[in-house]
User: Fold this.
Amino acid sequence: MTQLPIVAIIGRPNVGKSTFVNRLARTQDAIVDDQPGITRDRLYKPAFWQDREFFVVDTGGLVFDDDTEFLPHIREQVMVALAEAHAVIFVVDGQTGATALDEAIASWLRQQSVPVFLAVNKCESPEKGIIQAADFWEVSLGEPFPVSGIHGSGTGELLDALISYLPTQTTLPETQEINVAIVGRPNVGKSSLLNAITGTTRSIVSPISGTTRDAIDLVVERQGQPYRLIDTAGIRRKKNVAYGPEFFSINRAFKAIRRADVVLLLLDATEGITTQDLKLAGRISDDGCAAVLVVNKWDAIEKDSHTIYQYERYLKDRLYFLDWAETIFVSALTGKRVEKILDLAEAAATQHRRRVSTSVINEVLQEAVTWYSPPTNRQGRQGRIYYGTQVSSKPPTIALFVNDPKRFNDGYRRYIDRQFRQGLGFNGTPLRILWRGKKKGDFESSNMNRATQV
Ligand code: GDP
Ligand code: GDP
Assistant:
């Protein structure tokens, strides 16, 4: 998907935001959504000025329908819009002058890093317009542009200034190094696997030697993609004299997981899942890393055509909180399927840093609530989801703005989680969902896949 720059239109109600957006947008479709709710996709409008294209998003449509206190919610919209915007147009009403709410929004905007353009709307009067706009110097957001959404005057000057701040083209993400940790309990085959992997790849940075206690990373390249194998010294350290060969430094493994985008969790096919495996898996889930389950020593077990499926089912059962992870059956000894491991790691890393547009998220949400409405509590109050937006990646995190998080029980949360998985994929990475209520501080995170106790 090509991603155009996004310009967020922010301002208190009735200043003329939607009129202004209509003027900027190429299409004249109704932008004001009579049913504020989760259909936020209708608020994104393609627009252009000179040779530059961008999206305008009218945050005004995000005002909750039973709003009583505006400020916290406006701030919330601003936050959501700002998270993805490249520039903000702050619209105020030149005929009424700066209100307390304008001041509050302005002081908040001043603390943000995104460029802000101050559009003083309703300044169509040739005499009064400039004076009305000049009054807004006091909000300290730079030059106030006198504009009129209805008549179109002044918008050209504002847009000239604005487009110089938009990214010129969607810069393709350069090939980023993927941080990969290889973890597993002693004797599962970590150092054998490390050798097998480095045998199939080109090592572009030789390991930096240091004391044996240093974490040493090894950067390898496969099909143009660099991978940083984290703490390869730790993997090889078991022969260290200071500890017995069976010594398992879980803290060292935890440190490697913390630095990883993707964790290769090595499991031993000849043995079942142990407490140590569960401990590592739990940490992967808690840290929000992408993961690949690598079942090693597959050469050493007797198998028929069912074995792989049975083993897979067994894994999903025991490691249910990593049920989003792909599984691969390998042999570090014979090299079987070893070269596929990094491909899976790359796919998982791509999903881990993926961003999904707000409109797509709300399409999935709308489908989900249509099939199965949110629960109603004993007092007859129903849960309502207003809209959702991806607030961060690594791991992908979606905030759902709802009336009251307490009205959504675990069953419903799991359902929404499944719907997102079905609709959006995200294979190989955990997905976090934040349930955000209307009350300040009413914020719950749910990670349904979390390892509860291991
Ligand atoms: P929003 O709530 O900020 O989206 O505001 P609207 O776009 O719905 O406009 C609110 C009111 O202001 C409407 O009655 C518009 O007709 C009026 N309005 C919008 N732009 C202008 C303008 O440039 N000049 C004048 N005089 N009125 C405007
Ligand atoms: P580490 O402690 O996790 O680094 O494990 P090692 O790589 O040192 O391997 C432990 C033992 O398992 C060694 O005896 C290896 O030869 C053996 N091993 C490793 N990978 C495989 C495999 O794919 N198949 C079989 N049969 N043995 C393996």
In short: The chain has 13 helices and 17 strands. The first strand starts at residue 6 and ends at 10. The pocket of guanosine-5'-diphosphate (ligand 2) is lined by residues 184, 186-192, 235, 238, 296-297, 299-300, 331-333 (CB under 6 Å).
